[in-house]
Amino acid sequence: MKLVVTAGPTREHLDPVRFLSNPSTGKMGFAIAAEAARRGLEVVLVAGPVALRTPKGVERVDVVSAREMMRETARAAKGADALVATAAVADWRPAHCSRTKLKKREMAGVLRLVRNPDVLKSVRVPLKVGFAAETGGDVVAEARRKCREKSLAFVVANDVTEKGAGFGTDTNRVAFVFPDGEVRRLPLMSKRRVARRVVDEIISQMKA
Ligand code: PMT
Fold first, then answer.
1. Ligand 1 pocket, 156 CB below 6 A?
2. Residues with catalytic annotation?
3. pLDDT computed for residue 208 by the predictor
4. Which alpha helices (DSSP H) does the chain contain, by range?
5. What is the pTM of this model?
């Protein structure tokens, strides 16, 4: 069985030294890739710029921008059975990227943005799993919406404002949200243990 995992942030450059990004460290995605490889799956990990070692037995492809992540994930997805998207992909990028460092006098104080492609929505594989990073509100309702909109087998929802959850931590508190309305809430646990539960669910759905 072949699994593709996206992980980490993307960077959307304005010029060679400035970019839009977010605090994803890749820990959640790397933990899933490591666990899947340990369980004998063929794993391709498409990673944004992070400072983590490649897990044993995993093929890693490094990317910077959302468009690169789109291209490499689509390439890796050929013949794959499943995709898990843990990456925090920037939804927007600057409309123009300068080849040289912008001078202060060249900056108008307004940044025009254009939409990036949605990697998870666009890539075709038999089974897709998304993550939903929420900041309060109805986390489950948002996850359910993403599940429907992106045709997902399930969504792993996390409230990134909660202590011990989300970006950069070694732990996470997540809920698995299924398209039929089922919600499975897990307690705060290490990202390694969350990864084990995610891979368990993927393997069981792939065998079904
Ligand atoms: O990397 P860590 O520091 O360990 O942090 C982990 C995490 C907080 C990044 C992770 O747990 C998480 O929540 N990842 C999803 C982040 C996110 O971008 O969520 P979203 O709700 O905006 O996106 C929904 C889903 O669509 C995600 O699976 C995302 O990978 C995917 N997506 C979003 C936008 C886009 N242009 N392309 C995508 O593939």
1. no
2. 22
3. 84
4. 27-38, 66-76, 119-122, 139-149, 191-207
5. 0.98
